[in-house]
Design goal:
- This protein is of the alpha/beta class.
- The protein has 2 domains: about 160 residues, no CATH class; about 170 residues, Dihydrodipicolinate Reductase, domain 2, CATH 3.30.360.
- About 30% of the residues lie in helices and about 30% in strands.
- It is built from 10 helices and 18 strands.
């Protein structure tokens, strides 16, 4: 069966779930069918830059990923192995579905992805890594993208084995079920493997706009002594955005050489940290709003001293803009374009990179120190 999705033609058999042992023969059958269908002297080009292993454990996640895969392989062709734990196979404990994404180009037809879905029941999750291992394309880099809302170390039987197959691990702690404990275990896991594996949090790319704005607006040439004289930072974020907030504070702490002293949960919706630099205390307050998207909505910097006010309030105005609030700031009011990026574009951008991001890794070092005092 052929159907359209996001500019691609998708070749698959209708509702044809197969045994794991039949994956290779099913792929061969799809290639044969594809070559027969295009005939007329057209050529078939296979574009494949890497292996992409995706792990999820709910039907909602699988459906969302299915919409994102065409956007990813359009820019970064790959063999995609979509592993779903906690599934409900129709026959037995584990089964698969094979799909191809292709599109016409000037020289013929281009296959941009071979997708293998592997669905395992809760008591068969442990078999997923071995299935993935046997269907990787050799000599190509391998990335594991962890989509599950469970922090990776909380599912060790799957995650640790998948990480052994990979050159790079991508995770996204937005929406984790228990963000506080998840941040703690994940930052420590990443810190222990920074020398052997590229590990990347999509939250870091989501912070790009705020990091640029802070660096520009509070630059010593623009706002003298603002960063060195900071007394308090207040952050308001939407539900599920605590990991985003934690990482931003970690970046600031590392760059400004703050040492965490204490941290505590003030209430179910508010956290507090106290940092120190040169015998000066810096207070950071993070408050969760009752509703909204997993975004940072407001960021207030206060470096006021006796007789001299100094503040900058960044506020998300809508889905596309962040502004400096004039009545709450001593720096000039401005508006910046800041549309939240799609997750698929974040993943694609990281797939194209094979080098380490020292700024991200340094932010994780500070985030890890923040968990130690919490």
């Amino acid at each position: 069966m052929t159907k359209q999705q996001s500019g691609f033609d998708i070749l698959t058999h209708p509702s044809r779930l197969i045994r794991i042992a039949d994956i290779d023969s099913e792929l061969a059958g799809l290639w044969k069918q594809f070559n027969e269908d295009i005939s007329e002297g057209k050529t078939v080009m296979r574009a494949c830059m890497s292996n992409l292993i995706i792990y999820c454990d709910s039907i909602e996640e699988l459906q969302q990923i299915s919409h994102e895969i065409p956007e990813i392989v359009d820019i970064h062709p790959a063999r995609v192995l979509l592993l779903m734990g906690n599934g409900q196979p129709s026959d037995g404990k584990i089964e698969a579905l094979v799909t191809m994404y292709y599109q016409p180009v000037s020289a013929g037809w281009q296959v941009c992805a071979e997708r293998i879905d592997v669905i395992a029941s809760p008591d068969s999750i442990e078999y997923l890594p071995s299935v993935a291992r046997s269907h990787l394309i050799g000599d190509l880099p391998t990335t594991v993208w962890w989509v599950s809302r469970q922090p990776p170390p909380n599912v060790p039987a799957v995650f640790l084995e998948l990480a052994e197959l990979a050159n790079q691990v991508i995770y996204d702690n937005i929406g984790w079920e228990n963000p506080l404990s998840g941040i703690t275990v994940m930052t420590r896991w990443v810190a222990a493997r920074q020398d052997s594996l590229i590990v990347y949090n999509l939250a870091w790319r989501r912070l790009t706009v705020f990091r640029k704005l802070i660096s520009q607006v509070l630059d010593p040439k623009v706002a003298p002594d603002a960063l060195n004289s900071l007394k308090e930072i207040t952050i308001e974020h939407g539900p599920h955005a605590l990991p985003l907030t934690w990482l931003l504070v970690g970046w600031l702490a590392y760059q400004l050489e703050w040492k965490p002293v204490t941290g505590k949960r003030v209430s179910s919706s508010e956290l507090f940290w106290r940092f120190r630099k040169n015998n000066t205390d810096i207070k950071v307050i993070a408050r969760r709003l009752p509703e909204g998207e997993p975004l940072i909505y407001e960021l207030m910097f206060d470096w006021s001293r006796s007789g001299k006010q100094g503040r900058a309030c960044f506020k998300r105005l809508d889905d596309e803009r962040i502004g400096i609030v004039e009545e709450r700031s001593t720096v000039p009011a401005r508006v910046f374009t800041a549309q939240p990026p799609h997750r698929s574009s974040l993943v694609t951008s990281q797939l194209a990179r094979r080098d380490r991001d020292k700024f991200f890794e340094n932010a994780l070092v500070a985030a890890n120190e923040m968990t130690d005092v919490f």
